[in-house]
Design goal:
Blueprint: H1 7-19, H2 25-32, H3 36-45, H4 58-79, H5 85-95, H6 98-107, H7 118-121, H8 127-146, H9 150-169, H10 176-187, E1 193-198, E2 209-215, E3 218-225, H11 228-245
Antiparallel strand pairs: 1-2, 2-3
Helix pairs in contact: 3-8, 4-5, 4-8, 4-9, 6-8, 10-11
Length: 249
């Protein structure tokens, strides 16, 4: 495939970037100037490797990973100046996670902008991963506009404001498996045992996997999920909620 960006694609990219509503005069001025170097960066960030294009988002994704962590650290430092390092680390791990990136990608409808090949289009199982990766590449491309995290924070802080408060109120909902493991360790009992059964082979089926959690040989919870990780996480959340109601936590 030729590495050429037509006018229709240029307009799509500019409209998409404007829809992010980044409150930066210099950023908005740059993208609306249709600077070709800037447009190419974002075109690359929205190009999946399956497209067989000469470029794809993998390099910008790798770059964006470091930018994301720096921007999140900056947000936490500004918002929670008195938070201890351990709690900062836990909070940051949540607001830079692949799951969080996928949620943001869905909010901005980045999937509609990603150019993919036939095998990726038909692979429902990797949909969330592609969305998260492209969102991370987009972050890298935004940084590259000015070699600065200012615009990244101007964009992401509005999401982090809400999401960090929600996490701090109910951290177990975001990292239930770790919370359950830490509870077992505090009680001096064996770690939870997760037993997974694949119910169906249908990708994307919310009941594809079934998980049961056993603690000290007793079944404490169960749940379905479209992946084994989601089934485990949901089951762990239900166990934590049950233990809270029972006054065990």
């Amino acid at each position: 495939m030729a590495n050429i960006i037509d006018q229709k694609r240029i307009d799509q990219i500019i409209n998409f970037l404007n829809s992010l509503k980044i409150n930066s005069e210099r950023f908005n001025k740059l993208i609306n100037s249709k600077d070709i170097f800037t447009i190419k960066n974002f075109h690359e960030a929205l190009m999946h490797s399956s497209s067989k294009n000469l470029m794809n988002y993998e390099k910008l994704e790798f770059f964006g990973d470091a930018v994301l962590r720096l921007a999140a650290t900056n947000f936490i430092d500004q918002k929670y100046a008195n938070m201890c390092v351990g709690d900062r680390s836990k909070l940051r791990s949540q607001i830079v996670s692949d799951e969080w990136l996928s949620q943001i990608g869905k909010k901005i409808d980045i999937e509609s902008m990603i150019i993919k090949g036939p095998e990726a289009i038909g692979d429902k199982n990797s949909g969330d991963t592609i969305i998260a990766d492209a969102t991370e590449a987009l972050i890298g491309a935004i940084y590259k506009c000015f070699n600065s995290i200012i615009e990244v924070n101007l964009w992401l802080d509005k999401f982090w404001e809400q999401d960090s408060e929600e996490f701090l109120k109910t951290p177990y909902k975001f990292n239930a498996k770790t919370s359950l493991q830490e509870w077992c360790q505090s009680k001096g009992i064996d770690l939870p045992v997760y037993k997974i059964i694949e119910i169906t082979k249908n990708h994307g089926d919310p009941k594809r996997f079934f998980c049961e959690i056993y603690i000290n040989g007793t079944k404490e919870g169960k749940a379905f999920g479209q992946s084994h990780k989601k089934a485990e996480k949901t089951a762990a959340s239900l166990v934590i909620e049950k233990f809270i109601k029972e006054g065990k936590i």
